[in-house]
Design goal:
441 residues; globular; 8-stranded antiparallel beta sheet; alpha+beta; 5-stranded antiparallel beta sheet; 21 strands
Length: 441
Amino acid sequence: MTGILTGGTGSRAWRNWAGTVTARPSRQVSPASADAVAAAVRRAAEDGLRVKAVGTGHSFTATAATDGVLIRPERLVGIRRLDRAAGTVTVAAGTPLGRLNAALARAGLSLTNMGDIMEQTVSGATATGTHGTGRDSASIAAQIRALELVTADGSLLRCSPEENPDVFAAARVGLGALGVVTSVTFAVEPLFLLTAREEPMSFDRVTAEFDQHVAENEHFEFYWFPHTDNCNTKRNNRSAGPAAPLGRVRGWIDDEFLSNGVFQVACSLGRAVPATVPPLARVSSRALSARTYTDIPYKVFTTPRRVRFVEMEYALPREAVVEALREVKAMVERSPLRVSFPVEVRTAPADDIALSTASDRESAYIAVHLFRGTPHRAYFTAVERVMTAHGGRPHWGKIHTRDAAYLSAAYPRFGEFTALRDRLDPDRLFGNDYLRRVLGD
């Protein structure tokens, strides 16, 4: 899942994983150190060019697009420091989460929680508020203990609760608006085991029992398959062991053959012949049977995602999510829409990050997807109407139409963030059209 370069030298275009965003920067650089990032930022300012850092391109919005200088992550990688006594790891900002997870596991350590894919860079994932699901453990950004940031004047700012705490409070989910993050320090803990229990469940049952499932499980999520009453639930809880990973054959059948290979064929057919989507959904929703396994965290939390899609996700007050999902289901059933992808529901505790989608409120997420190339506007617009009626906050890296007027009312600390941005980047060196829309100017 990476951004893609096209075109000749000096005029290469960049586009994101989903193909929803294309940019043609004036130049691209791949610095290998914080000093090199600072030099690139200073030179861009001298040349009158804007600067954006990009990760692996898994955002569906244009948050990293620029016609100025594009800072690429390929050389800004690796673990800088592992402090077992403090329980932290400091990692270069361009390091993919998958590489970090594997290195930590080899060292007998792990992040506490993570999202369901790990192709993003650590800075790209945290800047946009990437999260998994958790009753008590929050997003990846909430696990940050310190970070380094190159600001608009080319200086390197070290931020933590003790050093530049006002910047730290906001920059953990910074949207690339405050500067270029060069390293991130995460809290880590000794490697542990999770037992995953996955089983089908009816829509009515899972929504009626939603609060109970969240209360009883450390990590609970479910998928509803549109055009059916079928859901697939996932419950992940810590285990004393022993490890009992999925067998290689069973894992390949479920995660590669069915969830990627067969699903790719079904989505392609549904895009070409929309009338086939409901019957295919009924088959797909019954294809995966119940399974239980125990493994290290990243092998439980994350799954391969090879079928390309477009996505919109909203964070709602947790108490509103069941009603909102029922409204989405009713909308799909009375509409001519044909939805080939399941709808994902996850939870997160409240946190204290200004632009986190869980800022100051316990939250639940509804994520909707469509196969890449399928017209998505009608479906996403209808879903967004439901989400905003419940005070929803859009994921910063996923498709939405909200602007600063809406978002300033949705986030109690929005003004804190924009005031900090005015101080750190008054000339909008790190600005672009997306940030102008969502943050104002």
